[in-house]
Amino acid sequence: MIRFKAILSAVIGTLLEHYDAMLYVHFLFILSPLFFPNEDPFITALLGMLSFAVGFVTRPLGGIFFGHIGDRLGRRVALGLSVMFVSIPTFIMGILPTYAQIGIAAPIILVICRMLQSFCVGGEATGASVFLAEHAAPGRQCLTSSLLNVSINIGSLMGAGIGLISLNSFFPEWGWRIPFLMGAFFCWFGYYIRTKVGETRAFQNVLKEHKVANIPLMEVLKSDKIVILRTMGICAGVMAPYQMIYVYMGDVLRNKLQLPMTEVLAHNMKIMVILIFSLLFMGYLGDKFGFKKVMGGSLLAIICITYPLFWFIEGTTSPNDVMLMQAILAFIGSGVSASCCLMSTFFPTKERYSGYSFGWALGSIFFAGFTPLLSLLLVKWTGNETAPAFILMFCGFLGIVALTTSKKRYDEREDIEALPKFVNWPKPMRTA
């Protein structure tokens, strides 16, 4: 029962915090003309994606800040603070006047709020995955780990759904504000839930044995530099497909196919539902056959299938073609759902939160934040609509390299004994 409550608190908190964070993605194509107006629609879209990318710059700082708290004071404390703090910039976004009302101050404040949101998220997803991994039952690590990604997508689905209702029920000029204001309230509910659970056994053991690091990140950088790079590589394979599905393809639907914003939201909601069930299915397969096989297969599929998918939608005018492409990419990309569980074993308990958060946040800057922006620019410069495929193929290759070189490292970690042993996962029964 204690384990269930702990997992539930992590999942609900992540769901609510990423509801807030994903609102910016969902409403990017409404916010861009309101806060970055320009006569050229391409410049407006470019500035909107740049504001999205710049937000990721603060993630490493958030990873350092919340990682330090998580390794010094406890995972529960850090997770509670992150979900509470993110409510502030979300609320400000909801009441912020537009460029037409206060001029250049509007986009500046919006970008600052986005950066503050990313600062908080920098210590949220990784901290929650550590919390889940340290509470996971033996033989259910992958499925438990997949719940984190599922909660992120459910939060995103909630944001899109509330946004769709708001835009259909109220004036578009201010209907987009309602989900942001609701999100600020939701975060306090998440904070309340996280204050009602206990600390993980792994961290309690660190406290009892007086092994708490003075400056955890410094110890990571002294002994685990190569592991930081591996974490960034795994991040590339995990995050780039998500950003391509939601952000870049959202631009294709909105600006190329000229779909109304309500149809774009409804379209993306269908993809989120597919992704949620795909993540659970891949989590189950990871527990049954081994997470390295499932993750490796997913990354190889990204490398091999991405270009044909982009070739399939090249020149299309049908939203259904784009949806099919997104659905296939979402399914093959969901195999990396075990990454949260894997990377928790990259670092010893006393520096796990800091190392994981910092490495993941660095990877997010290069392979998540700038993937949609670079994709947009590549298509503009080359005139080739399949060019973004090469970005995903490169990120998939980095993920493969990180995955295949990581085995020796986590198998040798003695203090991972505090967690379920990944090398002894149940194997599938053979049939005659």
Chain oligomer state = single chain
Can you give the helix content as a percent range? over 70%
Q: Count the strands?
A: 0
How confident is the prediction overall: mean pLDDT?
83
Shape: globular
Main β-sheet: number of strands, strand sense, barrel status? none
Order of helices and strands: HHHHHHHHHHHHHHHHHHHHHHH
Separate helix tally: 23
Q: What is the gyration radius calculated from CA atoms?
A: 21 Å
Class based on secondary structure composition and strand pairing: mainly alpha
Strand content: under 5%
Which consecutive residue ranges, at least 5 long each, have pLDDT under 50?
A: 408-432
Distance separating the two termini:
39 Å
Jot down its keywords.
single chain, 432 residues, mainly alpha, 23 helices, 78% helix
